Write the structure tokens for this entry.
Amino acid sequence: MPVIEVEGLQKLYGDFPAVQGLSFQVGPGEVLGLVGPNGAGKTTTIRSIAGIIIPSAGTIRIAGHDLARDPVRAKAALAFIPDEPHLFEYLTVEEHLRFVGRLYGVADVRQRIPGLLEELDLTEKRASLPGELSRGMKQKLAIACGLLHEPQALLLDEPLTGLDPVGIRRMKATIMRRAAAGAAVMLSSHLLHLVEEICTRLLVLQRGRVVAFGTTAEIIARRPDLGSRSLEDVFLDLIGQDEGAEL
Amino acid sequence: MIRMFGYLAWRSAYNRTARQARHLRSPRYVAALLLGLAYLWFVVLAQRPAPAADLADPRWLELVGALALLGAVAWGWIFGVERRVLAFSPAEVTFLFSGPVSRRGLIQFKLLRTQLLILFNALLWTLILSRERFGVSPWLRVISIWMLLTTLSFHRLGASFVRTSLAEHGRLGVRHRVVSLVVLGVVLVALTWSIGEALPRFAGADARTPIGFLSALGEAAAQPLPTALTYPFRVMIRPLTAHSVSDWLQALWPALILLVLHYIWVVRSDTAFEEAAAALSLQRAQALSERPAGRQVRWAGRRVSAPLIRLAPEGWPAGAILWKNLVAVTRTQRLRNVGLALAVGGVVVTALSFEPEGTLAEIAGWFAVTWAGAMTVIGPQWVRNDLRGDLLKLDMLRSYPLRGGSVVIAEVGASALVLTAIQLSLLVIGYLAFLGNQSMEPSLQDRTLLLVAAFAFLPGINLLGMIIQNGAALLYPAWVRLGSGRPAGVEALGQNMLMMLVFVALLGVTLLPPVAIGGGVFLLLHGIVSRWAAIPATTLVLGIMAFEAALLVNWLGGVFERTDPAAAGIG
């Protein structure tokens, strides 16, 4: 049974369609990569699925719960990690996790915190306020908050922003570990090598519409004219920027 | 350089206003604008000017105004001028600090940018005071108010430089601030001496009536030392109270000189501040180079206090938001200072109230009670640990598995609790200050009943007040200042005053049904069960307030769930 189900998603800002006619599903253990140029509708899509933006049309179901009809249960099953970490100025690292634990009703929050801090290399910073953390550490804390309640659906918007090479490697391992544990992961990124490396399927968006959907091999196979060229070439071709890429 | 600063300040203000005006496409914003204009018309413009017989004596205006300014300035020096007066936006830091701009240039930009806010508020004040028949003409009044606000704004900036310099550079800061500190010391000693000398004048029975109090105040202020102390503040007020153009011109020059002196002080202070900072950096570098090899550098870290309340992992989920907001309050230095001052004040006034000559305790008591009452109106603008602070994180709030109503009640509950705690502490101080006074009316028994009534009603009143404030932020996020800060200082006094008047009107409307129905029931039953009628009346008042709060929270919860962060301009 799919964890994330999106059907006919549309979001209009006035007359401008940010996303239109989007339908897809993400099952347990899958990692779906959302790619597209700036303004393609990636963030709008992820934020709609996270329940932040109200879609103009379409239905979204998380772990079987309709997001519009039963938002509390649907949101309890997901975690959203934005590209810019929004943290509370006066809560320490550990208090952020306790705060999130109460929000999601995590009874064994005390037992979970040490492991999570260790996994994200934050143990030494457990008593620090966000103002004392670097950009990368803030991002790690936001990720730790998202992972605390072991969500069935994990939504990440540009998850590697601000992380150093070690952090990137750890982050990739964390995402893959969660997927292996049965979570449905959906992430948006401009980093095609990351997407190619960890995503099981890709959804390529252009001006709010799907221009390609499937595994990397399937997408490349649909364009035999591009021969054995890289995902980057295929991506640029799909979004109509291939000439620029030749320059 | 000035042209570049002017361009930046002007275009930023223009684009910001244009962006806010674009929200007028929404009927909700149009309705707010029309209601605001109608309110302004009713409150200010449609009122007839005060009759000539009611004209206030300019001498009294000058004295009361000067004392108010002296109090505000002394408060800033003693309790701290907010550091954000020095703040630059991240974009300004990126472009200006790394660009070929001198530190003096930066401070001039800061002053220039504040001017737009001051001009706007000068116009607002002129509008608010338009029915008062003092002063020469509206145009000259705008200039007078602009000069007053600019001088005070410069003073606030200069004071913040001195305090920052002392806080960050210690003894080195004292050396660079010796002139400012000597002047400040002399003023504080003179002020304390003057207050001590004036106290006996207020002890007499005559001073307990408003006219008697003003008369005692006038006599005290006419002494040589208070006259010298209040002189600069009288100079600032005088152009406002002038009755002819020649009087105005005569009063203008000293005020203008004071303004220029402040400008020089601020600009020179900034240079001294930078020099102090540079010297300190040099000292640090030397200390590091002299440190034995291999020894770790230890920087003083900020110690985080443990939260006063423990958060259980299970329970009402929105309780996490309530807890978070209360933790934030206990970690805010300013509010911790207020708490400490209230605790110490309580002990001191209790001791003083049993002294045979308990005047000091009585003055403190009246001060505390007056402040507690005033906090009902101004408190909701000060205490902002609620949605007004958190709406900038609307993305995160919306992704939590919570109903909109739960988020709203948890957010407003936190700030209502804090405000109520401050007010009740002040009232308890007031109660304790009169504890030893056996002859006072109302009697001790009645005062105790009034205190109990405050404990019963204030939480509900504050909850409704906070719902109104948060409702405004939720309904009009593009027009309400979000984040922990708010427009503060004399520059923004006009707009804060206007907002407060609107708030008072809305709170009055909200409290009308419970007060009318509860009051009616009390009057109806009083003839039958005497004082006991207060019990059903109180229950009814609290019940209606709770019902109103529930209705409003439910409605605002729906608004919260429907608010699109991007469309609202906060995503």
